[in-house]
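To make the argument concrete, we let one protein speak, a sequence paired with a row of structure tokens, as a model reads it:
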Amino acid sequence: MQLFNKQKRIHYLGFNDSWFSVLGILFLSFVTNYLFNNPSERPSIELVLIGWFASLLFTIIDWLIIRYILIFLRKKYPSFKDDLKRILLLIFAIISVILLVDLIGGFLMAKFFSLLGFNSNHYVNIKVLLPIILITIMTMAIYEAVYYYVRLKKSIRDEEHTKQLMIQAQLDTLRNQVQPHFLFNSLNTLRDIIEQDTKADAKDFVDNLSGIYRFIIEFGDSHLITLNKELQFAKAYINIQLERFGHNLQLDWTIPEDKHSLLIVPMSLQLLLENAIKHNIVSASKPLLIKITVTTDTLVVRNKIKVKSTQTPSTKTGLKNIKKRYQLISNKTPVIKNDGAQFTVALPLLQPLKERS
């Protein structure tokens, strides 16, 4: 029968109960024999053994039937919301099975012992069955406790897995926002270079751009990368922008070597550099200086605000994207400050996982 298949049994019970069944049956058989024993009689050792084997037989029958019903009910009512219904049905089944099996067994034992000349009325005493029913219910309560614990762990594990899938989906969506956005701006830059400079400059730009896209292909699916990798990507991006702006775009950054192994959200620094260039004047009369520094656990990017006269309203998509990605993978978020004269963003630098754990 399918429900007695070992794997199915373990699935519905929550554990392999072979040894628990053996010990439980032995214990209940001794209790049953003791309760049915008449203290006023002094039967021989042979009759004691016969009585115990009979009790063992009836206990095995009780146990297997109740255990089968237990598995059947768990298969029929697997949900947490059905727990009360399942437990009440199980208690009813325990009472019914013990009354039926043990009364029939007691009646047969009474007939047997009466033929041997012993008083056998106590073998059909319903009151004797009450402690057996209570002990059996307590035994099944152990099954229920184990089953509840196993299901609770699985529920927490499934919930965590679902949460991880949702986070992964959101991160994928955010990454997919960044990459087309970057390509669009890069093509605009290429157009400006073609209009302003020579074809050789445009060729250099395309070469640099292909290198950047190799980086995106390699690390685009990562939640976090080392600061060293992000700096390499940012430098490649700045080299492209220097093709367009020359000395009008200036960077001041000195990052200590011991910080290079810290982790950062991919393309976050590049987005901040792009944001600064996009929203500020970059010209010979008003060169744009972007300063990048590192504190204990943050990468700070700041620039003076030089608003363009033809400035289009900012949707702040890039900043929102960075903040959302940090929120999904850590309990830290970027700090953004705008005092009207200077724009500052502090990106959290995260410790590698083995150091955080």
In short: The chain has two domains: 2-159, 197-356. Residues 2-159 form one domain.
